[in-house]
Amino acid sequence: MNSELRIRTPEGIAFAYQLAGPVARCMSWSIDLVVVLVLGMTVNTVLAKFGIISPDLASALMTVSYFVITIAYGVCTEWVWRGQTVGKRIMRLRVMDAQGLRLQFHQILMRNLLRFADLLPGCYLVGGAAMVLSRRAQRLGDLAANTVVVHIAKHAEPDLDQLLAGKFNSFRQFPHLEARLRQRASPDEARLALQALVRRDHLEPEARVRLFGELAAHFKTLVAFPPDAVESLPAEQYLRNVVETIFRPRTGVEGKVGAVPAEAV
Amino acid sequence: MIIDLPRFIAAERPSWTELETTLDRLQAQPDRQVALDEAQRFHLLYQKVSADLGRIATFASEPELRRYLEALTARAYAEIHETRERGRRFRPARWFFAEFPRVFRRHVGAFHVSWIITLVGVLFGGFAVMLDDEAKEAVMPAMFANHLGDPAKRVAAEESSAGDRGAGGHSTFASQLMVNNIGVSIKAAALGLTYGLGTIVLLFYNGVILGLVAIDYVLAGQSVFLAGWLLPHGVIEIPAILIAGQCGLVLGKALIGHGDRAPLTARLRAIGPDLATLIGGVAVMLVWAGLVESFLSQYHQPVIPYAVKIAFGCVELAVLSWFLGSGRAKDGAPGAAEVRA
Q1: Domain boundary among A151, A173, A202
Q2: Residues A127 and A17 in one domain
Q3: Count of domains in chain A?
Q4: How far is it, in rounded angstroms, from Cα A81 to Cα B243?
Q5: What pLDDT sits at residue B135?
Q6: Which of B26, B70, B295, B299 counts the most CB atoms within 10 A of its CB?
Q7: What tens digit of pLDDT does each residue of B69-97 get?
């Protein structure tokens, strides 16, 4: 089972989606199960009022409504919310076309109706096994409908001002080296350094010193700043300088680019 | 690659905003026709954003910008490279009266296999009840326990209760029948995922039960009662289950892919809309069958003469045959709509 679905467009651009694993999907399904039960009970409570007029009609409506809710819940929510149910929204998951194309109604219908085969012989055993064995973590319904379930990454950026403000950055004396650092640090490396600082207080002191030391050593291999600017600099401060250099808004760049679209993953 | 980021953003941002607006418009109005110049502009914007993403992809200092451009490219990619027909406004009458029979005919071979498997089951069940008195008890599920006794006694009991035997419970009974039968149909279609084997077993088993009950009544000399009881709802219900089996077999065939050189995903993509249409049509048929079974089939002579019930069933069968077989000449090439997928 791969952890991500990589799509390469004919234009040569690649982007990746993080595939949802069995545990996240199981939790999402459990939430949906509770929602369906609550919905069913609520509708039945309302329909029971019809029993005063006709007990037969009330009973019939209750039978049909529960069946319809069970089937239609997944189909309607995934269609209206573009691949999400309540459980998927809470777990930050989304159903999408396996080729990255537009999700079609028949795909949503098929993956929900074919859920029956995934449930066999009980407790989603077939679906779970299919997910573990599948290259794209697909249950049988997903395979037939050509859909995948992906994680939606969080886009909330940390408060960089609070994190980086008030600290002197000795790197600023060397703008050409700063530019080289920005150029050579990959997005993943930059994110790693940032996250290490953000989570500073959650780390044990020894682990923190070791982690910051390793990260600082790594960034030193990317760009060599003059010794007099960095020789007395602790690893943590070196890392702060690196992050500040990379993430510091520059003139003309401060404005937000725009809200990240809903489909962003 | 070193780029002047402020200038880059200032120059390209209008294109990104325009593309995002276009995408929002397309997704808000999926059935809107796009003019040629608008489509060309959309394609140009997509290429520009793709190129921008290519330029920014390795630039570490703007992860937010990169994610934004990735998401924008992914959305535009889904629209540009989607070759399937854009979702049109759903018209229930057109879908049921035109699309459903057309799709049925497109996969009529699977329907023939479906009824042949069921017929084999019927013959097996028939022979079983003829040769072994205990066959009914051994095979019949608990929900059909009322058919385990002597058919002649059941007929006598049904005919002697001239009043409304189901008084006050017709709607409930009808709803239970619909729910049960639609559930069975979904199972028959879903079991196509077992390369069609599960569907075949289910169709065969349904046939066995039908054969057991039908031949048991025939052997007891109750053929007229059987026809009057089964025909009004059975001529719709049984074909509906067969069409559900047709769904499962179409799905199984696509999974096996015998004689089709297209990859698995392309085969499944091609049949997806058809399966959805067929299973939707089956659900409509079973709602009708449930109503008929509850409000008509349970009334026997002398309340409703058997001749009337049999005639009603025959008319239904004729209408259904015409409905599913009509418009043959208007059909395009099989799967024409799906080839583009």
Answers
A1: A151
A2: yes
A3: 2
A4: 31
A5: 81
A6: B70
A7: 888 888 888 888 776 665 567 788 888 99
Q: Which residues of A touch B170 (CB under 8 A)?
A: 56
Q: Can you tell me the ipTM of this complex?
A: 0.77
| pLDDT above 50 (res B124) | yes
**Domain shared by A114 and A32, yes or no:** yes
B1 inside 8 A of chain A by CB = yes
Residue A265 lies in a domain: no
Q: What are phi and psi of A149, to 5 degrees?
A: -115, 125
Residue that finishes a domain, picked among A128, A151, A174: A151
First to last CA, chain B: 39
Task: Select from A168, A149, A20, A36 the least CA-distant residue to A95.
Answer: A149
Tell me if A132 sits within 8 A of A39, measured CB to CB: no
Task: State whether A27 and A92 are in the same domain.
Answer: yes
Hey, of A114, A178, A188, A260, which one would you mutate to test binding to chain B, going by the most B CBs within 10 A of its CB? A114
Query: CA-CA distance, B112 to B118, in Å (whole number)?
Result: 10
* A210 falls within a domain: yes
Contacts of A12 in chain B (CB under 8 A): 50, 54
Give CA–CA dist A9/A14, Å, rounded.
6
Q: Does residue B159 contact residue B298 with C-beta atoms inside 8 Å? A: no
The 3-state DSSP class for residue A2 equals coil
Residue-range definition of the domain harbouring residue A208: 160-247
Of A10, A12, A113, which is closest to B190 when you measure between CB atoms? A113
